[in-house]
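Q: Entry one of two.
A:
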Amino acid sequence: MSAGRIVLSVALTEDESMIPALAAYAAGRMLREEATLAYGKGNVFLWQDAPVDADDRTLLRLFESFTDSCDWWRARVEERGKGEAVEISESVIRP
C-alpha cells in the first residue's frame, strides 16, 4: 500500500537494452490496459493500482487485469530475450 492505494507491481527484466523495444509498445498498451510500464532501480517493471477502500469486485478486476497484462508483457520480454524478431504494426502509437 502506498498513499491510500493498493499497488501491484512485477519486475519484467533487468536488461536495460530492452527498454526501447518495450517502450515502443507502451503507448498502445495504455489504450488497452490500466497497467503501466515503468523503469526504476535497475528494473523494467509493470504496475497498477486501486484505492485501498475499493470493493471486492474492483479488487478482483484489478488482480485479473494485472495478471493478464503481466502475461502479455512477459511474452514480449521472452521474445526479445530469445532474439526473435517481433513485428510491430504500422499503427504503433508514439507518445
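Q: Entry two of two.
A:
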Amino acid sequence: MDKLIDIAGRAVADYGFRQAVLYGADDVARRWELSDQERAVLESTVLERLAGLPIPVEPAEVPAEQQRLAEAIRAAAG
C-alpha cells in the first residue's frame, strides 16, 4: 500500500496531480503498477476522499489530510 499512500499524499498536496488521479485512475494504476487490491482501494476510498477535499488544500492542512488519507487506505486494505 506504500505506492498508493504516496500517490494519495501527492494528490493532496498538488491539485493538478489530484485531477489526474480523479479523472485518470486507470492510467495512474497502470503507470504505478498497482496490485488489484491497491487498484480497488484507489477506485473506492482514495477517489472518494480526494473528491471531498477543498480546492486547494491549505498548505498548513496538507500534512493532516495526508495522514488521514493514509490511515483510511490502511484501514481499507485491512
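A: Comment on entry two: The radius of gyration is 11 Å. Helices lie at 2-13, 15-23, 25-31, 36-51, 62-77.
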